[in-house]
Design brief:
The complex is a heterodimer of chains A (152) and B (103). By secondary structure, chain A is α/β, with parallel strands linked by helices. Chain A has helices spanning 2-33, 47-63, 94-102, 111-116, 134-145, and strands at 38-43, 68-73, 106-110, 128-131, 148-150. Chain A has a five-stranded parallel beta sheet with strand order 4-3-2-1-5, sandwiched between helices. In chain A, strand 2, helix 3 and strand 3 (106-110) form a beta-alpha-beta unit. The N and C termini of chain A lie far apart (67 Å). With 103 residues, chain B is mostly beta strands. Chain B has one domain (6-29, 41-102): Immunoglobulin-like. A four-stranded antiparallel beta sheet of chain B has the order 4-3-6-7, with no helix packed on it. Chain B has a three-stranded antiparallel beta sheet with strand order 1-2-5, with no helix packed on it. The two termini of chain B are 28 Å apart. The chains are: A alpha/beta (152), B mainly beta (103). Chain A binds chain B through residues 98, 101-102, 122, 126-127, and chain B through 6, 8, 10, 19, 21, 67-68, 70, 103. Chain B: It comes from Cupriavidus metallidurans (strain ATCC 43123 / DSM 2839 / NBRC 102507 / CH34). Chain B: This is Sulfur oxidation protein (SoxZ). Chain B: Pfam families: SoxZ (PF08770). Chain B: Residues 6-100 form the Sulphur oxidation protein SoxZ domain. Chain A: InterPro entries: DsrEFH-like (IPR027396), Sulphur_relay_DsrE/F-like (IPR003787).
Amino acid sequence: MRRAFFRATAALAAIGLTAKAAAQEKASMPILGKGRVKVVYQLSEGIDQAVRAMANLRNHLNAAPDTKIVVVAFGYGIDFLVEGAKDSRGNTFEAPVAALASSGVEFRVCHNTLAARHISEQNLLMDAKVVPAGVVEVARLQFDEGYAYLKP
Amino acid sequence: MADPMRVRATENGGVVDVKILMKHDMETGQRKDASGKTIPAWHIQTVIATCKGKEVFHAQFGPAVSKDPFLNFKFKGGAKGDKVTVTWVDNRGDKRTDEATIA
């Protein structure tokens, strides 16, 4: 008699647990699955990567115009955001960066890199915004704000 | 409130170089949306820059100016550490003021 009672309560408790877990899953699902797609692009490898990224970003926005895109640049990846920077064909980055910024792309530059490479904030393109640390920004966007990660 | 502008001012040989990047859609009033309705004009009309309480730049913008306008001008008489204040007003009466310290 007593054993049966225990079995019954255990079974009830198990049902309660699964129901609770299912409810939690339901509550968290819409947050994960819906809403605006947000993507962080990591640029840390210099001009060639930046040229590829410009094309990727344009294609990304053509295919999915409501995507929120943040470009985080650090290390050699900030070179293209310095005034007067040119790609291998001699084109400057001002026009493509300004066009992307107008369509909502944000460019964030690592302050640690600026300090380490003795680059003044005044020499950056106007569209670039400085953040304290590039790696922290990439991690924070993914962990806290649910950004997808891309490295072109 | 409209988005902030980026203002940068640098002094070199007595001449202050001011660069301003405004964030504004600058609708001309000529474009039509997907359903064929005209999008009403909405653009910056006046841009004023002051330094130490004195007007150093005054411009009238029209619908021909691009989206997110970039403006670069130079003036004499500013020193490092002074503040340059830039204000724009659009045709709906919206305003935005930002400032930068001359470096």
